[in-house]
């Protein structure tokens, strides 16, 4: 299947147009979604996952969109697991009397 065919599938599944080419470049090179490295990427990934998940039939594990969605879900869970382990170092202000 050609890159443009994947592009059509990913767009039909709800991938934002401004992200589809970068996503497909990484998907073709690495076979899945990119690592999530920031809170903004995490929030975007959750939104994309919700939209795309609604378009993938249950039991579909083999189409390119389903494989990407599965790998994106793994990246989201990895981010959440990492975030749960890292302590919050935000300094708290002393309370006023």
Question: Explain this structure to me?
Answer:
- This protein has 97 residues and is mainly α.
- The chain has one domain.
- 65% of the residues lie in helices and 0% in strands.
- α3 runs antiparallel to α4.
Q: Outline the biggest β-sheet.
A: none
Structural class: mainly alpha
The total beta strand count reads 0
Poorly predicted regions: none
Beta percentage is: under 5%
Number of domains: 1
- Gross morphology is elongated
Radius of gyration based on Cα positions: 17 Å
Proportion of helical residues = 55-70%
The string of secondary-structure elements, in order, is: HHHH
State the main characteristics:
elongated; 4 helices; 97 residues; mainly alpha
Would you kindly provide a brief summary of this structure?
By secondary structure, the chain is an all-alpha fold.
Outline the fold blueprint:
Blueprint: H1 3-12, H2 17-30, H3 39-55, H4 64-85
């Amino acid at each position: 299947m050609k890159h443009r065919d994947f592009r059509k599938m990913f767009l039909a599944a709800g991938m934002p147009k401004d992200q589809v080419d970068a996503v497909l470049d990484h998907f073709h090179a690495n076979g899945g979604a990119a690592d999530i490295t920031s809170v903004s990427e995490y929030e975007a990934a959750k939104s994309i996952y919700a939209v795309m998940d609604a378009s993938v039939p249950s039991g579909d594990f083999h189409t390119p969109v389903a494989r990407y969605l599965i790998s994106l879900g793994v990246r989201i869970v990895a981010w959440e697991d990492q975030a749960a382990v890292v302590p919050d170092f935000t300094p708290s202000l002393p309370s006023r009397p």
